[in-house]
Amino acid sequence: MTQNILLLPGDGIGPEIMAQAVRVLERLKSDGLDIAWDNALIGGCAVDATGVPFPQETQDKALAADAVLLAAVGGPQYDVLPREQRPERGLLAIRKVMNVFSNLRPALVYPELVEASTLKPEVISGLDIIIVRELVGDIYFGEPRGIEMRDTEFGNERVGYNTMVYSESEIRRIAHSAFKTAQKRAKKLCSVDKMNVLEATQLWRDVVIEVSAEYPDVELSHMLVDNAAMQLVRNPKQFDVMVTGNMFGDILSDAASMLTGSIGMLPSASLDANGKGLYEPIHGSAPDIAGKNLANPLAMILSVAMMLRHSLNQVAAADRVDSAVKQVLAQGYRTGDIMTEGGKKVGTVEMGDAVLAVL
Ligand code: NAI
Ligand code: MG
User: Where primarily located (predicted)?
Assistant: First the structure.
């Protein structure tokens, strides 16, 4: 049966890098993969065309598709819009609507790009970890929230507040997702919380321990988030899979990605309970280099590989794409963001050419 993919090119460099991903899809299709795709609007381009960042038509198509591939949204021209109309609202909305609660963020250091990192080679060479971040709960969505006038010890003044809240069902489903991810790798899972201070994360730890009974083959450890931040920089290779809540995961996954030094190289997956997912590079729309054939399309192409692996169950095709990216790096092709000494400087399209040549 044909598997249907929805493509959301978005804004800035989005359409340029998506064009290279589409060339990869075309190649796989002509080699026999039974896939089809359609396009829709999200972010700034959707605001321009329809007045809203996540139009109903896009929502319908996203829910009907087997997987969604998104490039990036946003741009300085939209900063003047009210909050509900901002392109980034489209991102939050599609994650919520698809109920993709499990965000997989790999941080992988390619041997050819070790020098792109700001850390010492011995600390990061060979690094290959995944952070599993809960994506639709926690303090980012918790109620009550707001800014209001209150009487405090200083007098009547503005007070800002948010609520960190997790139900045991929310914790259980992300824990299952993390244990399953760990089972496919080194069978080592580190759960990160702040149980010494926050009740919500005491429950987190309790439930993760309960779920661990179903995964006796996975070695579970726990770490407080402040220590985890420190350990990620001191000795990141001690980890394999880490699982944590939305806010801690936001911060730790960005820190982990920068260990690799190459924002243009990192894909991500956001999965629902059935493995349906939203796949996107971790970087934004890079308005500073948009339209100049400068963007690195590899994070986008690696997002295709994650989609093949996690939603379309096409592991051989996923391996083929991952391997093609490794080969073009070994051949010395470099966009500006990953330039290394002696590298062959290429643009977005030429990097796509190199990947296609290997495929
Ligand atoms: P950004 O990730 O777009 O860019 C940060 C820096 O990295 C820039 O210098 C950019 O040129 C470079 N860069 C990013 N991707 C690259 C690639 N593939 N190849 C080469 N260089 C690359 O983050 P920034 O500048 O903070 O945000 C720009 C816009 O993107 C904003 O409107 C922001 O809201 C939006 N954004 C969207 C995201 C998404 O769609 N998931 C995530 C982050 C930001
Ligand atoms: Mg972030």
Answer: cytoplasm
How far apart are alpha carbons 192 and 224 in whole angstroms?
A: 6
Residues classed as catalytic: 140, 194, 226, 250, 254
Residue closest to 6 by CA, chosen among 276, 286, 233, 254: 276
Query: What tokens does 259 get?
Result: 């260990």
In the structure, what pLDDT confidence band is assigned to residue 142 with cuts at 50, 70 and 90?
very high
Is the same domain home to 251 and 309? no
Q: Which long-range contacts (CB under 8 A, 24 or more apart) does 45-52 make?
A: 45/9, 45/10, 45/11, 46/87, 46/90, 47/78, 47/81, 47/85, 47/87, 51/85, 52/85
Is 84 annotated to bind a ligand? Reply is yes
Output the CA 284–ligand 1 centroid distance in Å. Answer: 3
pLDDT (tens digit per residue) in 46-73: 999 999 999 999 999 999 999 999 999 9
What are the tens digits of pLDDT across the range 274-305? Answer: 889 999 999 999 999 999 999 999 999 999 99
Please give the tally of structural domains in the chain. 2
Supply 92's token pair. 């939050």
Six token digits for residue 157: 């003044």
Distance 316 CA to ligand 2 centre (A): 31
How far apart are alpha carbons 211 and 206 in whole angstroms? 9
- Its pTM stands at 0.92
Ligand 1 pocket mutation pick from 268, 285, 296 by most atoms within 8 angstroms of CB = 285
Amino acid at 293: N
The one-character DSSP state at 170 is H
Same domain, 96 and 112: no
ipTM passes above 0.95? yes
Find the domain containing 166 and state its range: 105-261
